[in-house]
Amino acid sequence: MLEYAERHSEFSLEEFAYTLQVGREQMESRLAMVASSREELITGFRIFLNASPDNPGGAITNPAIFTGDTTFSSSKLDSAALQSLFAENNLTNIALQWTKGGQFPWEWLHMEERVHRISLPAYPFEKRRCWPELDDVQETDPDPYISSRVIDIVSSILGMAPAEMNPGLPLDRYGLDSILLLQLLQQLQHQLDPAVDLVKLQECRTVMDIAAMIELPPTEDRQPRLHPENASIAPVSWPQFPELILLNKGSQGSPVFWFHGGLGGVEMYQKLAQKSERPFYGIQARGWLTDRTPLKGVGAMAAYYAHIIQSVQPDGPYDLGGYSLGGVLAYEVTRQLQVLGHAVNSVVMLDSPYGKEFQQGAVSRTTAVLQAVNLALASRNFQEPDKFIQTLIHRDELDFNVEEGKLLEQLIKLGNTRGLTKTEDQIVSMIEANVKIQHAYQFDQYAAMPLPDPDAVTCYYFRNKGGLIFGELEPYFSTTEDSSVLDQAAYWKEWERQFPDLHVMDIDPSNHMVLLSEAKSYETIFAFCEALYSGEGITKEFLQMFKDQTKELHGSKV
Question: Boundaries of each Carrier domain copy (predicted)?
């Protein structure tokens, strides 16, 4: 660390401290230093390194330096004492108390600051990691290969070097949320084990937990299952398709494929997928949080997705679905599969819009920036909309008359006070992904062509009866755009023309954006899909009964 400080003349002292505080395990042997400049920090390191080994404990001044060994210490502050200590904001006292023992919530020290983790050196002078080894914690020794590969995969997704990862630190401290969790699931499935289960992965808090969950065959048998040898639907790896994510462990019947919505991800389908007895695949947008180039236009995207589907399931019939834009993609994939001579059984559309009101250009750059930060905040409480709206950033809280870098500073500073755990690099990656995906859709150039065989497919359409697109969420996901014209549009009418066998079921969410967030609406959708994707499927009698029950529960559109 001394060498780093000496070689870097303009690093942020606050981010240096923050990285060491939240990104490293709080070990028994502790060194704390209070320095107000890089020069004081360097002086402190030199004083400490030159201190006599016969006097390792105690305090040194100028700058303030404290050391301690907490192995046998009983001097650990309770929650109330910690709150009082941090409220006083006496850095010298905080440093002293930390060296006496206990786990300190360092985030409290930086609530009003815009700070992020930075890349700091590991410890090359010792061939050991400065955090607990996995075999210190697990009852049995984990496979070193698995441990190493998991650390490589997780660190890559988080934008960190493997040496910076603390295997025992909760992953949400590094900014892992439901969005990045699916990227992690996809990489684990493709690089290690196609059978990695989303539900079990969601229960893992640390890298150690993930390594313990992965099961691989003996070393001599480790060959990736890249292609199916027969028609079995056993999980296989498709590394050529990073857009394809298996969201459940269903093993009965043929797969189900759902397509991403307008923001590019499929994280909103996680709980829905668990209701399916059949394998449930989510297909995210090409280029979403990956370095792949997005395809331009709905038609080109659908052609690529049809190719993915046929690689997994060479022959139909197929069952497709999607929320919002995902339903439009499902329609176009259906059309292209029919052109190729394949059968599609069903398409489930969740309030999927089509019409001139929605066929506008891509969102503005400033809207994309606002959406990315608020999406990161909302992902922490996705299915608790009453909670996540309290954490979102309102456009009126921001000054848009500044350059993008300054706008991002405002957003991250506000986000840090509301639970944002992502680093600036992670937020920038989400912004760039959002922008390039939005521009790639070219929705204004798409025209829904008739199906070659419209009578052969059934469409189940869940319509937001209130018709609001953003509703009260508009100022959190749009900078200046007025969505009132969208709220008045009959955006489902096109599907009445294209699907002779169309079943419209009205549900009553607050707005389009929370269709899969509010319990009343998503429980109805889940119940239907659970029956549709069961081994038996649904009958005409069940469908009529379900439609009647849904109308009684939600009412119908006026």
Answer: 144-218
Torsion of CA 478, 392, 413, 78, to 10 degrees: -170
Task: Quote the distance between the C-alpha of residue 13 and its chain's center.
Answer: 30
Q: Is the pLDDT of residue 289 over 60?
A: yes
Helix or strand (DSSP H, E) at 289 = none
Q: Under a CB-based contact definition with an 8 Å cutoff, are residues 458 and 317 in contact?
A: no
Indicate the burial class of 182 (C-beta count within 10 angstroms; 0-12, 13-18, 19 or more).
buried
Evaluate whether the domain defined by 2-110 bears CATH number 1.10.1240.100: yes
Classify 526 as helix, strand or coil. helix
Are 141-216 and 244-361+443-554 equal in CATH topology?
no
- Report the alpha-carbon distance of residue 525 to residue 266 in Å, rounded: 16
| CATH 1.20.1280.260 for the 141-216 domain, yes or no | no
Question: What tokens does 457 get?
Answer: 């497919």
CATH code for the part of the protein at 244-361+443-554 = 3.40.50.1820
What pLDDT does 234 receive?
Answer: 45
Cβ(160)–Cβ(425) below 8 Å: no
Question: Any bridge partners for residue 463, and if so which?
Answer: 506
pLDDT tens for each residue of 385-398:
777 778 899 999 99
Tens of pLDDT, residue by residue over 250-282, are 878 999 999 999 889 999 999 999 999 999 999
The 10s digit of each residue's pLDDT in 163-220 is 888 888 888 888 888 888 999 999 999 888 888 989 999 999 999 999 998 876 554 4
Over residues 95-118, mean pLDDT: 73
Q: How far is 89 from 85, CA to CA, in rounded Å? A: 7
Query: Sorting pLDDT into bands at 50, 70 and 90, what band is 141?
Result: low
Comparing C-alpha atoms, which of 37, 87, 45 is closest to residue 67? 45
Bridge partners for 244 per DSSP: 283
What residues pair up with 257 in beta bridges, in sequence order? 281, 320
What secondary structure letter does DSSP report for 471? G
Q: CA 44 to CA 5: how far, in whole Å? A: 11
Rounded CA separation 387/372 (Å)? 18
**How far apart, in whole angstroms, are the C-alpha atoms of residue 543 and residue 536?**
13
Residue spans of the domains in the chain: they are: 2-110, 141-216, 244-361+443-554, 365-439
